[in-house]
Amino acid sequence: MPEGPSAADTAKVTALLERGRALSTPVLRAAVGRLASPMDTVAAYHFGWIDAHGDPADGDGGKAVRPALALLSAEAAGAAAETALPGAAAVELVHNFSLLHDDLMDGDEQRRHRDTVWKVHGPAQAILVGDALFALAGEILLELGTPEAGRATRRLTAASRKLIDGQAQDISYEHRERVTVEECLEMEGNKTAALLACATSIGAVLGGADEDTADALEDYGFHLGLAFQAVDDLLGIWGDPAATGKKAWSDLRQRKKSLPVSAALAAPGDAARRLAELMTADAKKSQAEFEDFDEAEFAARAALIEEAGGRAWTEQEARRQHAGALRALDRVAMPGHVREQFTALADFVVVRQR
Which UniProt keywords are present, listed alphabetically (predicted)? Predict the structure, then answer.
């Protein structure tokens, strides 16, 4: 991983994320307010604005990386940050649509240290509210009625389709004995990187940037997304549950063929062979049988992945993608302070603990 950010850089990123959250939240609240009851209440719970009883809450609404990127991309194009707000909100709505559906499909009972929507309000509401957020995203962009809004919507629609492709790939991989590193990177490029790439270009597009500028910023976001997912894959196996809000070994519990797993299986040596034998047997078990494993069995799998080199390879991949993101910035003429914030945000993504 890159060296940990300095206190000044950490403060810079914190301020950037807080600005993204503060400016986008009113737009998100207004969008959610359009939904019919009880979907508006369920969505408000998901975003952390209310608790399970409907009382106001100050829940963790996520890191707000995507809104922060959208606002910063507008500034990279010479526009005011506020120009990006419809795009920032639209990308965040699509992201949360995917979280609502993913939690249900994966059977995750916790997100952001709270019960997930399907656990509190039922699977039907999780599906409906996810669909509604997806529809709202296009609505708030298209109602701007500008050529730039049309360009932004096309980018968001393409990214959304890739995101769904990636989720379908992710599910299909769970019951395969092994997935190649190339397949895993393709899946993660679709599921995670495509929407981050869109976030990093959508503000610039709304600010009137040309296609070359938007494409360069999108490349930054794509590499950043792959770095983000590589770190997410590491946290999905070795992350501290107190920081991640998920169970220990969460990705192993779900039989995800994440980058550390795929890289370990592709490696030579006895550890990779023993891991492959376990994964072959695991693929034949039902999810109920698999969930009955004790902690030692998941710990043993994690140890084999590390011994085979999957953890080290994934850390190196995060560094490679981080470097690729910074190279993409060289193709865009932007104010120095904006470039510094893009760099600080990239550093934050690869050293985070949750």
Answer: Magnesium, Metal-binding, Transferase
Which CATH number characterizes residue 31's domain?
Answer: 1.10.600.10
Domain for residue 241, yes or no?
yes
Q: What's the one-letter identity of residue 163?
A: L
Q: Measured in Å, how far apart are the chain's first and last C-alpha atoms?
A: 15
Where b means 16+ CB within 10 Å and e means fewer, 341-353 reads bbbbbbbbbbebe
- Please check whether residue 291 lies inside any domain of the structure: yes
Helix (H) or strand (E) holding 342: helix 336-351
**In this predicted structure, what is the pLDDT of residue 351?**
83
CA dihedral for 132, 225, 190, 282, sign (positive or negative): negative
Compute the mean pLDDT over every residue in the chain, rounded to the nearest whole number: 93
Instruction: Answer yes or no: are the C-beta atoms of 237 and 258 closer than 8 Å.
Output: yes
For the chain, the farthest-separated pair of C-alpha atoms sits apart, in whole angstroms, at: 60
Number of folded domains that form the chain: 1
Structural domain includes residue 2: no
d(CA 191, CA 165): 7
Residue 336: count of CB within 10 angstroms of its CB: 7
Express each pLDDT in 156-193 by its tens digit. Answer: 999 999 999 999 998 888 777 789 999 999 999 999 99
Supply the range of the domain harboring residue 103: 7-351
Cβ burial of 54 (10 Å; 0-12, 13-18, 19+) is exposed
In a domain, 255, yes or no: yes
Pairing label, strands 110-111, 114-115: antiparallel
